[in-house]
Structure formats: C-alpha cells, structure tokens
Amino acid sequence: MAKTRHRRGWSKQAPVGLLLLLMCMTIRASALMAGSEEKECPEGDYPTEEGICCNKCTPGFKLKEKCHAPGQRSTCIPCSPGQFNDQDNYSRNCKSCRKCKRTKHEIEQSPCDKKRDTICSCENGYYKFKIDSETSECRTCTICGQNETTKEKCTPYVNTVCECKEKYHRVNGKCEPCESCTKDCVFKCSTTPLTTKSPEHPHSLFINVLVGVVAGFVLLVGLVGFITYMFTKRHYKEKTRHPSCKPSDTSSDSCKEALFISEEGSENSSLNCSAQSPVCEQDQSNLPDCIPLEIKNADLIYTVLDLVPVLQVKQLVRFLGVKDTEIEQAELDHRSCREAHYQILRVWAERGSRAAAGVQGGILHRPLLEELLDKLRQMHLDRAAEELETKYGIQ
C-alpha cells in the first residue's frame, strides 16, 4: 500500500516538475538571446552581462565593483604602487610597471606612475633599435671606420651616420680612393670642353650593335616568359576552381565540406561522403593536391597577422563580428599588440567553429575562411586574400 501511494504521489508531482524545468529553460534561452544583442551605451560606458550601461574607470584606476542598476556608478580604486592603467578601462587588474634593465644598457628616463608606464632610454654609447612596434633594445653605437667621417653623431634614439672622406667613394661597403670620374668623384671629371669629336672606332661600333642585339633577345625572352606565366596561372586557377572530385547525385556541398575538414586522428582514413560519390570514397592519401584536408586555427591566424597591416587588424575583426568589448578585453589581458590581435582572431574562429556541428575544435570551418576572404577584399586587401587562397588551395 505504501509503495502504491508513493507511485501515485510521484505521478502527480512529475508533470509539475517537468513544467518547472521547461519554464527555466525558456527563461534561460530568453536571457541568452537578450544578452546576445549588445546594448548601445553612451561614450565612456560599457554594457554589462545584465544589459546595464556602467561607467569605465579612468586612467590610474581599476574596477572594484561594477554598477548593478541604471544610474549607479561603478566603484573604482587607484592602482597599487608599481602598477598603472594608461586608458579608460573596466579591468579588475592594473598593469605592472616596466623595469629598466641595466644589464641591457637601459636607464630610466621617466618613472612609472598610476597613469603611465616607465620610460627607458639607452645609456651613453648606445642607441634604441626598434625590433617591432612593441619591442626595442639598446645597441652599441657604430664607430666610423677607416677613410670615413662622422656625418651625424649617435644619440640615444639614432645610430651614427658615417660618410666617406673627401676624394673617397663607397665601394662594396668600404670607402676607396677615387680613381675615375663618377658622381661621387666629380673632381676626376674633365672640365675642358671637347672641340672635336673623335671618330668612333669600328670595334666599338660592333660592340654597341652586339649589345643591342643581346638586349633585344633578352627582352623578347622575358616577354615570352611573362606570357607563359600568365597563361599557366590562369590555367591553374581554372583547374583549381573545378576540382577533380566528381559531383554526386546527393549533395556536392557535403562532399566539399568533408574534403575541407577531416577528423584528425581517425583510424579509418576514408572520407565520410555519400555512397553515390565513388571519387570521394577513395583513401585520403589519393586525394588531389588542390584540396586541403584541414586548416588549423592557429596556423591561419598567424598567417593573417603576417599579411594584414597592424593598423587594420581591428577593422578586420570588427567586420568579422567581434565586439568592441572583446577587443578591449584582449588588449588589457595581453601586453603585446600581436598577442592581443591573435586572441581576438581566435575568438572569431572558435565562435564560428562551435556554431558548426561536427567540426573538431581548433579546425577552421570552410564558410569562415570564405567570410574572411570576402572581408579582406572589402577592405581592399586583395593581396592578402590571394596569398591565403594560394596557401590553402581555395579558388
């Protein structure tokens, strides 16, 4: 009897529990959809996950507690000694101050404060050599060599500029005495005007004709080579635009997708294509060279960073749908500009990969590459798009 009453009680409660579960799922989905639409906030504010516009902390401060309702202000506190924030932010951490390295011949030019990082310069006898936009090092000033004079002295920011002494000119990097009339040895040139023109020697005439014939032949060969190159390039594009994988009666797009993205580490190397496509059922080792098996996110991102100018990376990721808040967070989390750019491109790539069912993590989905190529061309970066197409065999 007790078991019967227990079963009857459970049967009455089950529909109620199921209804509550469905309501929770509906509320959660609505919240996610609402959160996906980024709210526009006034300048200097940022949208929180709750959809509220909170103010950013000013330079020299970090976020302690964000606002919880419209009209409230975020709680910001000053950066601790040895730390700084040089821009408006909503980060809970400040950046560590740089320390000038005496072992690297650096001296402190301006100390770090809450709003600005330490500024280092080079000690006497050294100058700052820029490796990239974020990195530099102090290198020894050049000492002018034999037969050279100092045109500009070395400074903490510019190396020594040397030039050849008078009556010397530079040959293969060295200053050699002038021996004939050149643009650097004008004093060797005769200033007396010629009254008569000596007749041209027959041997010199023959040499001039021979040089003209050789030059014309070289020009002709170069023209034929250029025409051959253009024809081969066009033929290659036509061939790669129509790959050898024959279309099946089911769906050619599914076949291309399977060729473009293969599951890494699979013991069975056969492609997951339709049975009506005999060409696509062959082993991966027999696939044509024009079809890449996979494109890894990291490899693609580093290739994009090498091709796209640094100042246009932010514009590119905005075109690709990355939010400004995600870009700002990446720049706060990474001191290096290149690492910050890598992170925001990784956000775009992994977000698209998660949206594609069946795509392994770390492998780029084909529509994402096509979207990237389209955005590059919209930004007039056709050269970068062509380089990616050539590298991955996409035409």
Broad structural category: alpha+beta
The amount of helix comes to: 25-40%
Q: How large is the share of residues in beta strands?
A: 5-15%
Q: End-to-end span in angstroms?
A: 75 Å
Radius of gyration: 34 Å
- The number of strands is 14
Shape assignment? flat
Supply the number of helical segments: 9
CATH class of the domain at 295-392: Mainly Alpha
Description:
There is one protein chain. It contains nine helices and 14 strands. Strands 1-2 form a two-stranded antiparallel sheet. Among the domains are: about 45-95, Tumor Necrosis Factor Receptor, subunit A, domain 2 (Ribbon); about 125-165, Tumor Necrosis Factor Receptor, subunit A, domain 2, CATH 2.10.50; about 250-285, no CATH class; about 295-390, Orthogonal Bundle (Death Domain, Fas). About 40% of the residues lie in helices and about 15% in strands. The radius of gyration is 34 Å and the shape is flat. With about 400 residues, it is α+β, with helices and mostly antiparallel strands.
Task: Write a brief structural summary.
Among the domains are: about 45-95, Tumor Necrosis Factor Receptor, subunit A, domain 2 (Ribbon), CATH 2.10.50; about 125-165, Tumor Necrosis Factor Receptor, subunit A, domain 2; about 250-285, no CATH class; about 295-390, Death Domain, Fas, CATH 1.10.533.10.
